[in-house]
Amino acid sequence: MRISIASDHAGFEQKQILAQYLAEGGHEVCDRGPENDNRVDYPDFAKLVAQDVANGSADFGVLVCGTGIGMAIAANKVHGIRAVNVVTPQFAQLSREHNNANVVTVSGRFVPVEENEAIIDAFLATPFAGGRHTGRVEKIMALEQQ
Ligand code: RB5
Questions:
Q1: Which of 5, 55, 66, 69 is most buried, judged by most C-beta within 10 A?
Q2: Does residue 98 carry a catalytic annotation?
């Protein structure tokens, strides 16, 4: 899969590890930065990954900040994005099955990197279930037109 990944300073260390983990797992990884842990503003990096997913140049996005919360809020401002801040593999799975999430945001400060690897694995391995969830996701996306 083509994965776009980025972080802020708080997520930088885990972003480096997670990007390598994804590449070793056979994914095509586009690292949107930053290149070091100097202080930056997370919306700038959420925007880059969200745009990659929204324009189809990436299949999924991964964002890492201190909590994952700011990244999710910012990414969800880009049309076409369904970003979820996830702290367990089960929620990652459900966010794909029920919500057809296309960006996962994780915490670089409060969740160990091994758990974030498991979260990302679950996220990428789980297809959207469709069925009764389809119309609900369509209603979410229709909110962008209002
Ligand atoms: C940076 O201090 C922190 O606010 C950021 O990484 C993130 O947790 C925001 O949601």
A1: 5
A2: yes
